[in-house]
Design goal:
The complex is a heterodimer of chains A (about 300) and B (about 325). Chain A has 13 helices and no strands. With about 325 residues, chain B is mainly α. Classes of the chains: A mainly alpha (about 300), B mainly alpha (about 325). At the A-B interface, helix 1, helix 3, helix 4, helix 5 and helix 8 of A face helix 2, helix 5, helix 6, helix 7 and helix 8 of B.
């Protein structure tokens, strides 16, 4: 962004400025309102809900939350699963991709061209969903394991290309020369030169990867049926998709055999679960706000 | 002393491998991953030409000649109403998304650049980008709070105004409008950043000359900013065309609360949701593979074609 603003005269008219600001304020409202609504519903008494949702509850009640927290076991397990997936998955993904990107960036590496082709081909053509599923379940036996949510996301050709470009543009050849003179092995060069100097690029890749793992429901949808392995998003998915699901996990937690006996503040509990799940993202948002703009400009610079 | 040319090829190969063994080791995790997840599924497309029996394994089906049915699965797909449905939905929605997305992103980026108060711009951008970080599951909840037939605010508003409440999740009519709106809501903030970055990269001198010449700011936008954005717009659009046969599963399956119910079938099923249903719900493995293979082939043609075009325009922006 230019440091100096253009002359005070060279801008749109005052009226246009007001108009544009109104437009953006409308956008802000459209983005914020749904959250206020969900939060409002979550704090409402379930019976007054019959008159419809609103932001300010007609009758305030923590019913939804207390019911949801009955299922706290399930929620905590889901948080655990999601945290594990995100931390381990992101670390491994970044490791695999940066390890791959380093030799790709070295001109003296003879296998460079072949490897570029090797990662490019899958970007052009894939076998499709069904063969992938067959490999995951029958060859790799990933079904209903924790690794089902990590391993299929361990590599990305796109990230490798971005990292390779980053290394080539930001680490001067002289550093590699001096490393070679010092007698460093390739791994030492990777560890002591490439990794520290690629921190910015890796941070951006790590951010978007972590976001992907945190938000992922699809791998669970395809490969997980064991309720103990549900991650946050998949738990939420089931609560909304299956009528009796929330009831059944609360009943399990309370040790009630016949779930039908349970009085369930269904709608407000659902919204309470949603708030409990999305809350951390909203709270963390100001902190990671800095990264993504850099990330977009980085991602648009490719080889 | 032997020169390297005098060695047989396998010795030279081995020497090269030994020399690069550290690098090859670094490639290894990625290579193994690709072998399993990208290359091993490839022979699986042969299932598209078979009649899969539940009792046979993949290899058993492979070698049993009675199982081979040639293009019958493709014929079944192309002749079924599903084909028209899925193709029409996939292409129509993607084109709509691209057009609206482009217009929206450019409009937001250009407008944001014109606002007088820079601090407000940061605030606005922060807020409108946020939906991009949500999963479609969360979005489905947000949407549900508004479209719930009995309790949602939209139906509440409609009844207050004297209209009939609409069964949003059961009726097809609204979704061709809702889906593009959802797509924009979630995506326009983030895609506007590309254009915003491009705009701030423009040399301010051009605007100063224009101002001296007495050209209004509005005209400056039309005649300077937009034309300078054209290359970015064209390249991003053409590259987007490469993915025209693929859709965002979350938008069409999760946000619509379809999740297995078939009510919105006509307006909401795309090739991706159809393949998913074939595999996970009907267990029609061969047909699912055939549809997936069709999609991959079309996708390949599109990506290669699109890249050839982009290379002619702006070589740096092509993927390869």
């Amino acid at each position: 962004m230019s440091k100096k603003n253009w002359g005070r005269t060279n801008r749109v008219s005052f009226g246009a400025n007001i108009g544009l600001n109104c437009f953006f304020m409308l956008c802000v409202v459209i983005c914020v309102y749904p959250f206020l609504l969900v939060i409002g519903v979550s704090f409402t008494d379930n019976d007054t809900l019959r008159e419809g949702y609103r932001i300010i509850p007609k009758m305030f009640s923590m019913d939804g939350y207390s019911f949801a927290l009955n299922a706290s076991n399930a929620i905590i397990k889901a948080y655990g699963v999601t945290l594990f997936n995100t931390v381990v998955g992101t670390a491994l993904h970044v490791l695999v991709c940066s390890l791959f990107a380093f030799p790709l960036s070295r001109p003296e590496c003879k296998s460079r061209k072949f490897m570029m082709g090797f990662i490019l081909v899958p970007m052009l053509f894939s076998g499709g969903l069904v063969p992938w599923y067959v490999v995951c379940t029958q060859v790799l036996h990933l079904k209903d394991t924790i690794w089902a949510m990590i391993v299929p996301s361990l590599f990305s050709s796109w990230n490798v290309i971005v990292l390779r470009t980053f290394i080539m543009k930001n680490i001067p050849e002289s550093l590699f020369e001096s490393a070679r003179i010092e007698g460093c092995t390739e791994f030492q060069t990777y560890l002591h030169i490439v990794l520290p100097l690629s921190k910015a690029g890796i941070a951006v890749i790590a951010f978007f990867t972590a976001l992907g793992f945190w938000n992922d429901y699809w791998l669970s949808l395809m490969l997980i049926t064991d309720q103990n392995l549900y991650n946050l998003q998949y738990l939420l998915y089931n609560i909304l998709a299956r009528m009796q699901f929330l009831q059944s996990i609360a009943a399990q937690a309370l040790g009630i055999v016949s779930a039908a006996d349970l009085r369930v503040p269904q709608e407000t509990a659902r919204m309470a679960m949603c708030v409990l799940t999305v809350g951390p993202i909203i709270l963390a948002y100001p902190f990671f706000q800095r990264f993504f703009v850099k990330g977009i400009t980085l991602g648009s610079i490719k080889g | 002393m032997k020169t390297s040319k005098a060695l047989p090829w396998y010795s030279r190969c081995w020497k090269a491998i030994k020399r690069e063994r550290m690098y090859l080791l670094m490639y290894l995790p990625g290579v193994i991953w690709l072998l399993f997840f990208a290359y091993l599924p490839l022979p699986g497309v042969l299932m598209a030409f078979q009649r899969i029996s539940i009792s046979g394994t993949f290899l058993h089906n492979l070698f049993n000649p009675t199982r081979w049915v040639g293009f019958a699965n493709f014929g079944a797909y192309f002749n079924s109403p599903d084909f028209l449905n899925t193709i029409r939905n996939t292409l129509a929605y993607n084109i709509t998304f691209m057009a609206l997305g482009l217009a929206g992103a450019v409009f937001v980026a250009v407008s944001a650049n014109e606002l007088w108060n820079r601090k407000l711009v940061k605030l606005y951008q922060t807020v409108i980008i946020f939906p991009a970080f949500l999963s479609w599951v969360i979005v489905s909840y947000l949407l549900y709070s508004m479209l719930n037939p009995q309790l949602g605010v939209v139906n509440g508003l409609l009844t207050q105004l004297g209209f009939e409440p609409i069964n949003w999740y059961g009726e097809n009519k609204a979704w061709p409008i809702l889906l593009p709106l959802l797509n924009i809501w979630k995506g326009v903030g983030l895609s506007s950043i590309y254009y915003f970055a491009a705009i701030t990269g423009i040399d301010q001198e051009i605007y100063e000359y224009a101002e001296i010449d007495g050209i209004s700011r509005f005209k400056q936008i039309i005649h300077i900013t937009l034309p300078l954005l054209k290359p970015t717009m064209i390249v991003l659009t053409i590259l987007g065309l490469g993915g025209i046969i693929r859709t965002d599963f979350g938008l069409f399956y999760v946000a619509t609360l379809q999740m297995g119910r078939g009510a919105l079938y006509e307006t909401v099923s795309t090739i991706d949701t159809y393949t998913y249903t074939l595999l996970m719900q009907s267990g029609r493995v061969a047909l699912g593979t055939a549809v997936g293979l069709f999609q991959s082939v079309v996708g390949l043609v599109m990506i290669v074609g699109v890249n050839m075009i982009v290379r002619k325009i702006d070589r740096d922006s092509a993927i390869f």
